[in-house]
Amino acid sequence: MELPRSLSFHNLERADGLQGGSSILLRIFISIIYSVVCALGLVGNVLVLYLMKSKWKKSSINLFVTCLAVTDFQFVLTLPFWAVENALDFTWLFGKAMCKMLSYVTAMNMYASVFFLTAMSIARYHAVASALKSRRQGGLLDGCSSAKWLCALIWILAILASLPNGIFSTTSTIFGEELCLVKIPDSQGNNTPFWLGLYHAQKVLLGFLLPLTIITLCYLLLVRFISDRHVGASSCGPSTKRRSKVTKSVTIVVLSFFLCWLPNQALTTWGVLIKLNLLHFSHAYFLSQAYLFPITVCLAHSNSCLNPIFYCLMRREFRKALKKLLWRIASPSTTTMVLITNLSIPTNK
């Protein structure tokens, strides 16, 4: 049976804001995961920024990695607030101003992170294709100055895409609980569910489908280009090993992005279909928001926070730099132990 329009929208609003009254164990589990991701993201992104500064080579890919680390560092700073919200059964304690600001910063950095990942896939294909050609051809991403302009454009697009969060995020009391959610004012003649549906559809299109299409296309073209250039190479030669490494890294990057974001975007798409009256609000949808949606958000956030670490560890020069840094950190204690040992050995003088 279809719910009355007012009741249906009220439950839909609660599902979008509260994401369900999940169990205590689930809330504690998600809060712990948020805390772990926050700690790893802070340490990891600071480490990436340090390595990028110490091993800086002016290239578009390195610039995108640096911007991605800055973006995700800002993003992880918001996670403690969302962890507290989860622990308190999605009750918001920090006021309307913090709700608006944190929602906007979270959305902006989510879009920026995905956009930088997309730009990195384009830059990587362009760099490898240019290096393997007999002569280097000019292009959009040749030189760091062009990449800087593209980074500025990405930030502008992320700021614009997240404006609905900055404008419409607010606190609202629903069923006696104060929640932080995106709420479009319900005025006379204003089809609020429709506009909420468009808002979430934008998230699916700009934050997942379009970037995933571009990333997948770039990496497929990259693998095909390398295969075509080395079609006559031996099965155990260096070119075959290079192709195998590129294919492996491509598969990891695409699959990690797809698998981490797919569950969240699938549930968001389900909500879009309900808001656009293509599907009816159901108890199954409410339960999915209660128990599955918080987990999918946590999974998606984990992917975004750890992206720079993931990219750097796949590059040999950064693995070497990381080993040297860790050795330097450990070397003072090693040196101290050697001095103590030498001083404790009696001499025959």
UniProtKB/TrEMBL annotation:
Outline the extent of the G-protein coupled receptors family 1 profile domain. Answer: 44-311
Q: Return any one Pfam family short name.
A: 7tm_1
Location in the cell: Membrane
Please cite one Gene Ontology biological process associated with this protein.
Answer: cell chemotaxis
What PROSITE patterns does the entry give? Answer: G_PROTEIN_RECEP_F1_2
> What residue ranges are annotated as transmembrane?
24-51, 63-84, 104-128, 149-168, 204-226, 246-264, 284-313
Q: Does the keyword Transport apply?
A: no
Q: Name one GO molecular function term.
A: C-C chemokine binding
**Protein name (database record):** G-protein coupled receptors family 1 profile domain-containing protein
